[in-house]
Structure to design on (312 residues):
């Protein structure tokens, strides 16, 4: 028997699930058929790949060697199929640019610039709070490019083979608080000024809760925390129920203030990722111009940047 990609998929499924029964269900086949297939694979390789135990299947040393080679091959085959399908779709429907992004005020300007510069290209946008999910979609061929935020201290899981470019190496994170909050009277807020406040955080944003927790604990704080989404957070901030971290490009409102945090304790890195350098080149300049346009439109961020420039 000659080994094929489907055999390698079977090995990966057994290793991932630890069970012939679960692997067979995942692969859409019967357990006896998978057992027979595994036996033939082991005969072809010349040794036992899994030890069958009462608790399931455990990789043997030979199995670990085989899996270390099988996984990249399966991943490459999946990427080949996805990218080929995507290329075929683009060829039949005309030029397309599929963008994924976490939340950013740079997006409207970015899309506007792309539309003006590439009038014959159909641009789509997919938003997601999970940067890791967007990166996986780029690697899998479902997106062409992703603009994501990497929280300091919580590195993203960058899929193998992606190209990336740093837009901003460290963007400081500011705080949203009610306009009548006592700390809002100051141009810069200390974390200790918010010791009595309840913080709101979206735990589905990759790395955000861990990053904020580290910063608060480093300041000696153990505040009350409310988990939710940032759309809801705005109304709660305005009424003084919570305070929350926000991007520096955020805009204040009559009932909400945006303030830098003293010492800039929390930062994120802004990245653009694609499968090729050419795809990065096609979007990076427009994104960079749009980001700094959004930065200039934010009074709080503009003042922060001017202060940094003066200090330099």
């Amino acid at each position: 028997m000659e080994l094929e990609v489907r055999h390698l998929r079977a090995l990966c499924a057994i290793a991932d699930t630890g069970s012939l029964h679960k692997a067979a269900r995942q692969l859409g086949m019967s357990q006896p058929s998978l057992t027979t297939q595994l036996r033939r694979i082991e005969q072809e390789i010349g040794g036992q790949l899994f030890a069958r135990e009462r608790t399931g299947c455990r990789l043997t040393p030979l199995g670990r060697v085989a899996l270390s080679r099988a996984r990249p091959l399966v991943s490459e085959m999946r990427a080949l199929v996805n990218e080929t399908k995507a290329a075929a779709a683009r060829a039949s429907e005309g030029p397309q640019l599929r963008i994924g992004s976490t939340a950013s005020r740079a997006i409207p300007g970015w899309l506007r610039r792309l539309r003006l510069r590439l009038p014959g290209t159909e641009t789509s946008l997919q938003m997601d709070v999970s940067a890791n999910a967007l990166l996986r979609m780029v690697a899998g061929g479902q997106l062409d490019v992703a603009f994501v935020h990497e929280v300091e201290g919580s590195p993203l899981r960058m899929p193998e083979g992606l190209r990336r470019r740093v837009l901003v190496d460290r963007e400081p994170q500011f705080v949203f608080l009610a306009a009548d909050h006592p700390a809002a009277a100051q141009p810069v807020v200390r974390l200790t000024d918010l010791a009595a406040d309840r913080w709101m955080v979206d735990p589905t944003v990759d790395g955000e809760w861990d990053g904020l927790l580290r910063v608060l604990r480093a300041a000696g704080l153990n505040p009350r925390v409310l988990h939710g989404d940032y759309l809801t957070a705005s109304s709660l901030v305005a009424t003084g129920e919570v305070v929350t971290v926000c991007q520096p490009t955020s805009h204040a409102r009559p009932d909400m203030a945006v303030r830098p945090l003293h010492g800039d304790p929390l930062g994120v890195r802004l990245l653009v990722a694609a499968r090729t350098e050419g795809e990065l080149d096609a979007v990076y300049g427009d994104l960079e111009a749009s980001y700094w346009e959004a930065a200039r439109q934010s009074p709080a961020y503009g003042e922060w940047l001017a202060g940094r420039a003066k200090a330099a």
